[in-house]
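step 4 of 6: structure.
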Amino acid sequence: MSSTKPISAVQSVVDELLADLHARSGCEKIGLTRESFAVILCEVGSKHATAATSLTELRAFFLSLRVDELALARACAAGINSAWEIFLTRFREKLYLSALRIAREDSAARELADTLYADLYGTSTREGQRVSKLASYSGRGSLEGWLRTVLSQEYVNRYRRTKRLVSLDEESEEGVQFRAPEPEPVPAADPRLAQATDEALAFLSGEDRTVLSAYYLDGRTLAEIARMLGVHESTISRKLDKLAKSLRKQIVAALGRRGMSRRQAEEALEVDVRDLHLDIRRSLTQESSPPAFSEKRVEARVPEGEG
Amino acid sequence: MQNVPKIVRERLKIATPAVNHPGADALTAFAEHSLPGIERDLVLEHLARCADCREVVALALPATEPVQTVVSPSSHPSSGWLTWPALRWAFVTAGIIAIASFGILQYQKSTHQTMTADRASAPQTATAEAKNQLLAAPVAPAPAEKRDKIQALPALGDSVSGANLMVMQSAGPNNDSNTSPKKTGAHAEVAGRTRVIGSILGDQKTFGPRAANQFQQQNIAQNQAPSPAPPVAFGKEQASARSSADVTAPSTTPTVEASGAAPQVASAQSLNQTLDSTLAQNQPTVQPPSGEAYAFEKMSRAKLPVPPGQIGGYVVDPSGAVVANARITLIPSKAGQNATAVTNSQGLWLIAGVPTGTYKAQAEAPGFRTAMVSVNYDANQPAMYSFTLNVGSVAETVEVAAQNGQIQNGQVPTDTAAIVADREIRQIPINSRSSSELATLSPGPLWTISSTGTLRRSADQGKTWEDVNVNANPAALTTAGVEVAANAPRAKAKSRDKDSNEQPVFRTVAAAGAHVWAGGSGGALYHSADAGSHWTRVDPTAAGTSLTGDITSLEFPDPQHGKLSTTTAEVWATSDGGQTWSKQ
């Protein structure tokens, strides 16, 4: 986000709201002066604002900030001891718990949290200045949530990457060297299919694609996705159902536009050996009964009724 | 869940990866759903492409998963679970109804049997009717010629179920019978009927103490028209009385069975004679009930399964709850021995072998006002005197026992403070105090704080309580204060306590022998070295600071060592009886 918004506009809004924001921030308790707080607000505001941002939006932005936590984080970044005391009493335990939840293993969690502490305290220096990660907190979400996010980023950056590395020994032990050579990547049956799919996907909103990716690619549960997006689980469930149906319809239609008959299009979608393979695996791992199963049951009942 | 075609997954995966990851700020705000619309869309667009950021967001979700997982299945799956609580309640309700109807049926059945027996006026077969007799016994006064019937009173044990009921029978003297008395007290032991009896007794118990007025009315009616025309209910009693029970004479052990084969009159008489004799020695004559109605407000006399010669009743508090361990003393108006009884856990008391006469019945229980009523007792009549022990105002008490003294000026607490002493001994938490310390507490007066923050003292184990004014004796305070001030420079008595006779609001009190400490609001700490006769105010100071917060707890395991804690989360300790303090 470029800060093309004139600083003066931000400054004026900050001046206008400073009294209120300062009162809410509790700066006195953590030893932050009003002036430095105003500077922080200006910085945050100008980072956020773009040329298109109206004054009203800017005002709303400032009012929605969690100024108390912003002040605390910035005071910590500035190295104020009383602020650190408050920070540690409020967040130390939570930080370790969050790390434990993310890393799922005690030693890794400790290491993760300790690394974050080092970053928060600012071990690296730039131009002789200690750089604390807390200085990048802008108060848009809760400080606790921000800490969790930073922890997760750290975890994703480090632990997940290292997890992917497999030692050569392990590789040989697992018999990787004996396994069949990777099958030649099957050339896409029809380039039209990929085009049609892209087209159908492009119609979807970012949220829909996020849901699809999270569910089908990441294997997240409905509950997790629901919490990510702040909706109910059943909403996600319905959305996924609807998306799968409409995608299929859209792709078939797009294929039709590309000169495939309806039957051909259906076949192109359905008769894919890889699909079948994946479906079986999913069926096995999925808790809820897949529709195929319930269909079978219906079929099984029919003769009973006749008999 | 429908599967999307494989191609969709592929294309989703291949989708051009995003480069500019949103910052932790934006992701946090997104996860907390506080991003404005446009920014949210941008983040979503990125998330659709970036698996790493999706993972970050998922990992950073707050740890509320357990709650979510609990909530979601209940709302998501069908209504099968929802019906469960309803079913459960239905079962409970059905169970209650079944039990209740069973009880009612049993009661009606037994009543019916009695009535039938009466109408038939045939010789009764004995054992089957024993319970009827028991049931009918409460409806008391028999006509004169029937007065000598067996009256059975189930002696209530501690268990309400009455599972082990022994029916004590004793006979009142019989002024009609001139026949030779036989020398046995009779115990009718009714086994196998315990359930019925138990349920009836249960009825009575709940019914008895709480419906004192009704009893009183019945009682008055009974007293005014004692013998000639007993109501229908009394008829029952006669019938059942005619029928006799398995009577086991404890002295001679063999069972005297007054069976149906025996002529009715004979069996009744022999039984009567049998029963009469036990208590005949000290019960020379029997007067018919005087007919005087007792109009005591606090006393109600009601019918109970109390056989002649026995007097009993309930002791309840104003709320209708029974009072256990209340001491009942029957003091004869003429010369004679006092008889005493203690209420059991059902609040029932019973004294046997009381001769006819006028008595004063006195009920006393710790924490309650002693109640005394005069009793015109006819040994031939079953008598039940229920006491309502009042902890309220004096005006409601019939008569205050003079020897108890120290009844307070209408301020005897109606709150729990009144019964602290009783429970204090039994329920004092001794995990922080050794049980031997209870011993040091018990000989001295008992202390408590009333709900209004007044310090109270009881010199008689909690029977009566008196307010203690720590500022009441300025003279004593001065001397004591001077003494303490001279001895301990830091613990000085404030002269303002003398000026203002205002009582501090106390919150806690601790006693170790004769040393009593009371603490309360605003750092008010008072000490008495002579069991509360003289008080000094102590102002703990340590390192230049003084105690200001409200004192919430005091601990003085011995007169020298103690500590207190305040609302300001301070803990002060002394090891020299309060002369110097240290703040911890």
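step 5 of 6: annotate
 - The longest helix of chain B spans residues 83-120.
 - Chain B touches chain A through 55 residues (CB under 8 Å).
step 6 of 6: archive
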